[in-house]
Amino acid sequence: MAATTAQSGTLPSGTGICTTVPDILYLPELVFGGLVWILVASNHVQPQNPLGWVMFVSIFCFVMTFLWMILFAAGCHKNSSGWAAADFVYHGLAVLFYLSAGVDLAFITLVFKETFGLKFYQINVAAVVFAFVATLLYFIHAVLSAIRWKYF
Questions:
Q1: Which of 26, 55, 58, 117 might form a disulfide with 37, Cβ 3.0–4.6 angstroms?
Q2: Would you say residue 1 lies in a domain?
Q3: Locate the MARVEL domain: which residues (predicted)?
Q4: Is residue 51 over pLDDT 50?
């Protein structure tokens, strides 16, 4: 059975990030964020693509989450006590970014519904759903990171 949090005073490293909450959420965040990135990138929008913010958020969060996961897995956080707070701050920022990107993507999808054509409209709807799933995952991670930070 997976532990709900790391032991008091320690953050997981190595394969421990695959067995503790909130760190187990790194992989689903990467999957759903990558899906948003792929689906938005596969669209062609006329007039020029207004989804630059969505692309920035999905790429930024994908890269940063991957780097954050690698830092935790490598144990780079062992020599500092600010990592629990930094984990909360990063995931809180990711929630705000993904929420704004999801709302932007949903708005553009509705506004350009007739312009897209059915295929691209369906792709955008899927991207909207995945953006909000990614938002939810980052939110859960941020809340659990805040709890871990409180008891760290």
A1: 58
A2: no
A3: 17-150
A4: yes
Q: What residue numbers bound the domain in which 82 lies?
A: 19-151
Taking alpha carbons only, the member of 130, 50, 63, 129 closest to residue 90 is 63
- For residue 25 the two structure tokens come to 């959420």
Q: Side-chain half-sphere of 64: how many Cα atoms within 13 Å?
A: 15
Task: For 88-114, give the DSSP string.
Answer: HHHHHHHHHHHHHHHHHHHHHHHHTHH
Joined together, the tokens standing for residue 73 give 């897995």
**Given this model, what pLDDT does residue 10 score?**
64
Averaged pLDDT, 108-119: 84
Q: Are 148 and 6 in contact (CB under 8 A)?
A: yes
Look at residues 108, 93, 97 and name the one whose alpha carbon lies nearest to residue 132: 97
Number of domains in the chain: 1
With vertex at residue 109, the alpha carbon angle to CA 119 and CA 134, rounded to the nearest 5 degrees, is 95
Give dist(CA 82, CA 126) in Å, integer: 37
9 domain residue, yes or no: no
What is the pLDDT averaged over residues 105-133? Answer: 90
Q: Does the residue 12 lie in any domain? A: no
Residue 43: pLDDT band with limits 50, 70, 90: confident
Is 50 a member of any domain?
yes
The answer to whether the Cα torsion of 81, 150, 11, 70 is positive or negative is negative
